[in-house]
Description:
Helices cover about 75% and strands about 5% of the residues. By secondary structure, the protein is mainly alpha-helical.
Amino acid sequence: MAQQAAALKRKPAPAKKKAKGPKIYPFKWEGKDRKGTKISGEIQGTNPALIKAQLRKQGILVTKINKSSTLFGKRSKAIKPLDIAFFTRQLATMMESGVPIVQAFDIIAEGAENPSVAKLVNSIKTDVAAGNTLADSLRKHPKYFDDLFCNLVESGEQSGKLESLLDRIAAYKEKTEILKAKIKKALTYPIAVVVVAVIVTSILLLKVVPQFKEVFSGFGAELPAFTLFVIGLSEWLQSWWFIILIGLIVLGYVYTQVNRKSLKFRDAQDRALLKAPVVGKIIYEAAVARYARTLSTTFAAGVPLVDALDSVGGAVGNVVFRNAVMQVKEDVSAGSQLNFSMRTTNVFPSLAVQMAGIGEESGNLDGMLEKVADYYEAEVDNKVDNLTTLLEPLIMSVLGVLVGGLIIAMYLPIFQLGAVV
């Protein structure tokens, strides 16, 4: 017994769970400033007492403070890439104005409309205030700050030009996200309209056509072939619509899983999109713009060209260009010029190759690449606008044929009956 008791005493105590940081909530407050004017606002914080103390330092006497309702107030939303771009722009602007970085984080977090952004900014602020570099603090959040972002920030900290680097990163993120939004618009607009057309046609076949079928059953005459075809299609859809719906859901789920897990499938999809009519040209020029913009930003930050190409390979967003960039990296590492390496891949357009050559000869490679990015971004913008303009009448024609065809098929027997009478 004594040995068992001794063994129990020697047994190590269970490890304590790491304490979680205090939760941040949105609070609405009312108060008076130094002149006695009534003011109100909303602020992020952990508890009312700390918020009152914080506002008191700003000369505001709080008379009322309540936690904001998440039902009708601000809700936590997912942090989008444009939120990160906006955060970077704010941080760059305040640091260029001489605001200390920790205070800049406080201002950004207080003004954030999305509580999730405020929580992220406060987490970064805590790490920076504890003595960590900004780059190391950002690396703790890889979901929002990729290697390219963190490496550029680290380069800015080491060179003492963090403010200007943040400004370049903000411009890079803004233009990249705007370009992605345009590509998404070009791809989703026709798909969305086709989906709506299919849904409307299905509703007509399921709900409207059966009503006409009952009316036609009392005619006692042979129906036109077109009407019989539509009625047969309606009967088939009524019998199989549930299985079709389940099949579409399963197909969507399988596509999502395969697209997420299979690199070969994503690569094949990238190659197919580049060969697609009309849309393929837009995706191609967007990839060229991303390549030029990323390489310009990294090279201007002082990153060696070979290392910059590593970052560019992961940012172009298409396997064809990623493989081309890796080939360019190998050639440049072996001593070739950038423009010659780009030409041998047979992927990059001649304008981008020639501008890179001029940049290398003049010592202004980042400036020339930036001009290339501006040119192709403008091209993508114009093509997306033109595509949207051309698709509108085409889509209206498709909708007219689908809906109009169903209406003609249903009223054709009535017209024939009138002619007989």
